[in-house]
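= Paired protein data =
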Amino acid sequence: MDNIKNGYSEESIQILEGLDAVRKRPGMYIGSTDQRGLHQLVWEIMDNSIDEALSGFGDEIRLTIKSDNSVIIEDFGRGLPYKKHQSGLYTTEVIFNMLHSGGKFSEASGYKVSGGLHGVGAAVVNALSLFLEVTIYRDNYIHQQRFSDGGKKIGPLKNLGATKKRGTVVWFKPDPKVFSTTLFNYDYIKERMKESAFLIPNLKMVLNDERNNQKEVFQYERGIVEFVEYLSKGKSFDEVKRLSGTYQARKEHTISIETAVSFTSSYQENIISFVNNVRTKDGGTHETGFKSALTRAFNDYARKYGFLKEKDNNIEGVDLREGITAVLSLRIPESILEFEGQTKSKLGTPEARAAMENVIYDQFTYYLEENVDFANNLIKRANDAYKAREAARKARLEARSDRKRNKREVSLSGKLTPATSKDNTITELFLVEGDSAGGSAKQGRNRVFQAILPLRGKVINSERVNLDALLKNEEINTIIHAIGADFGEEFNIEKCNYSKIIIMTDADDDGAHIQVLLLTFFFRYMKPLIENGRLFIANPPLYKITKGRGKNENIFYAWDEEELKKHTEKNQVTIQRFKGLGEMNFEQLWETTMNPKTRTLIQVLIEDEGEAEKKVSTLMGSQVMPRRDWIEQNVDFETDDDFIVKEHSYE
């Protein structure tokens, strides 16, 4: 009786048939329904085309973004099967309208390796699209079938006539009722296609955007060696080493390994890994095996030639890998391939660790023996890295000890104005440029959940210094203490004191410079803040517009020239240009920039880690020429403004 009253009864239990489950809970299948999930649809279809290329069928893939934000992906592989399936349905209906169906479960399919594992990708794209149309060139004929309304409406399979072509074309348009945005990002897709071209030598990837007539072609003869050179741009780097081989995982399964490695002038480690061309951004067993192999080979070499005594501790991998840029690309047979989750961000295959440990250990040992100068320089680098890390460790311990002795004093030398609430699910930390703006922010804030940290001194460029020098910078030290979650490899997002870290600087060149310096620090030493969506940039207005006087006075704010024009056309107004945050009184700062109900925040995201790595290295690194090249390509100095950045994003 109680169940009937509260509305929970046998009738409440639903069985979701077909693709209904995908539309009901899309995040389970594509991770989210924001821009990331939107682009996951592209990856699901494109990965199928890449699997054809991996298996030796077709050497070109074309992707077109149509003017209506639909997408067409074309390959020149074998063409999808289309005839009647044993289920009684056409095979196209099985592939695009049934979950956990596909050709990659069968040993006879020709897919020795593939990125598609769960058999849900194509069906998920169909489920979340207004329409999906597949055109197949196979058996000297063209066949086409169209699905609409998330796969609910199924058109007939049509024979469109004869052809000599081979391949598959998939055209789909995401459903705006599912996604928060259906606007595809050209740069995001470009970088993914560029990555794929790097990973399969001589594969031609063609990107065409009909919205603005952009077109680019990516094709690389030397594969991931060129990938490492691309990632290392902006740093000085030594010869790119190619370490590769095969490993017999079981009697019938062979894992193929290809890596490219360079040691750069950077202080950061940058390892990017792929399995069957799928980016494993959260690492996994292959990255663990790679790191273990390098460390073991290096320590064996150091002991063999007297750099380490038997009683000495091993040189730690973290010191050896300082400045490393590496791309790992594995080909793993489908039958032993294990990803964690549908989005395939982490490899779980146990054999991958053993494969990397064996192949990379042998290859790196041989390279050290054949390149004595390199090996000796690497030992010196590792020792320098160890000393810097030890100095940083001692500084960290001293800071912790200081906090325990006098927490309030470290309360950050009186700089931090804390929030009264200790609930880190609602608290916010504003990093504010200058004492003047800091004073206004302290007065204007909501003291319950908003903390203010004025930045008085220069923020160091963390891209150009080691840990020891970084921690000697007072502003960086203060930020670390205020956030309370440590930094670097020991950073723990669970200990973060705030739900949001908000950078609030003046809308001028100096403010932009401070933003970039802080973004570089967070990217290098507190990356989980960005990955978990906790880092933001405040967006203060540029103008205050006053209409009328006295009781008839009305105040408006404009964030750009276009908004200013709207308020000033046909009106007599007084305009005040805010040159800095300090020119606002605390009420204005609260109303425009700090009040959660009225403010606009820019969220900092990493959409493509490889591209982010390259840009940070180029713009903030010690190499002058790559930075100069970027500026010349992206900044227009021949305008009325001081300069205009042609392409700008915080992603």
Summary: Residues 372-405 form the longest helix (34 residues). The CA atoms of residues 462 and 470 lie 6 Å apart. The longest strand covers residues 253-263. Residues 1-17, 103-110, 405-413, 639-651 have pLDDT under 50 and may be disordered.
